[in-house]
Amino acid sequence: MGESIGSPALWGGFFVFVFAMLALDLGLLNRGSHTVSAKQALRFTALWVSLGLMFGAGMWWQFGSRLGLEFLTGYVIEYSLSVDNIFVFIIIFRAFRVPNEYQHRVLFWGILGALILRMAMILMGSALVQRFHIVLYGFGAFLLWTGLKILFTKDDDGEENPEESAVVRQVRKLIPTTKELHGNAFFVVEAGRRMATPLFICLVTVEISDVIFAVDSIPAIFGITQDPFVVFTSNIFAIMGLRSLYFLLAQWVTLFRFLKTGLGIVLSFVGLKMLSGALTLINEAWAVHIHPAISLGVIVSVLVISIVASAVIPVKEVPPETDKPA
């Protein structure tokens, strides 16, 4: 396995770009608490998608078509998996009763934490893959199992309340917490005692949910490329655009009812692609090589079909219950 294309200068330049965009976002464009409008969310979503595509084009021009396609494929997978994150974020904000004008602050710091956590997970995963190549087959089996589970497991009707989770209860035991929100503050001082607000507990819950989703998404990108720089940058561009995508799709996310099925097919496809490499352990002649362009085409086609099907196929209406005679 070759070395990463990411030189220290390239890594450093990318980090400078990311933190400059975060500073611009928080310090200038989103200063103060306010409700993000659909128009503003659309502009920022278009901006982040454009930046991601431009970066992919730059990778293609600088390092060749293969790495450019690998970046774009990983970016598409990660961005599509973000829709599941959005659904969970909606549940979390409802459970903690966070007003719309405070949600962008929670998501900003949540994304900043996700950058750090995902970088650690990616570097550890990359080190394992480079040292023990067989780990890739474990990733493939896990993704195939996850994809099949999504396809053949029905969604539960009830939604688990994040406030009642074991992790949140443990955090409340360790950190004194107020009962009510105090504006957009994460911590306040009451009776001379520093206490966390429910907004901080909400932030912790958002971070935990992102780590759980990363367990699926990061192995999926390792199924496309094993270059740490490509894995990390495709992840980060998708995460950076997640906040604006949330405000754009929060009201309509339930309309994409077949997208989860599409994601199950995508994860199963990537898992099988990774497991196909295990055939070389038996016989080199059995090696299966799928060109990155084919992988990208399959993934984009499945996602587009699932979205179009969600819009075209009508929802089955449940007939109302009729009163039975006594």
Describe this structure in words.
The structure is a single chain. This protein has about 325 residues and is mainly alpha-helical. The chain has a domain at about 40-135 and about 160-255. The protein has 12 helices and 2 strands; from the N terminus they run ααααααββαααααα. It has helices at about 10-30, 40-65, 65-95, 100-130, 135-150, 165-175, 200-220, 230-240, 240-250, 260-275, 280, 290-310; strands at about 185-190, 195. Strands 1-2 form a two-stranded antiparallel ribbon. The longest helix is centred in the middle third of the chain and has 32 residues, at about 100-130. About 35% of the residues are buried. The model has no long low-confidence stretch (mean pLDDT about 80).
Summarize the model shown.
Helix content is 70%, strand content 2%. The chain has helices spanning 8-29, 38-63, 65-95, 100-131, 135-152, 166-174, 198-222, 228-240, 242-249, 259-276, 279-282, 292-312, and strands at residues 187-190, 193-196. A two-stranded antiparallel ribbon has the order 1-2.
Strand order, main sheet: write it out.
1-2
Write down the overall mean pLDDT. Answer: 78
The helical percent reads 55-70%
The residue ranges in which pLDDT falls below 50 over 5 or more consecutive positions are none
Q: In percent terms, what proportion of residues is strand?
A: under 5%
* Euclidean distance between termini CA atoms: 75 Å
Report the strand count.
Answer: 2
* Shape annotation: globular
Q: What string gives the helices and strands in order?
A: HHHHHHEEHHHHHH
Largest sheet descriptor:
2 strands, antiparallel
Structural class: mainly alpha
User: How many DSSP helices?
Assistant: 12
Rg value: 21 Å
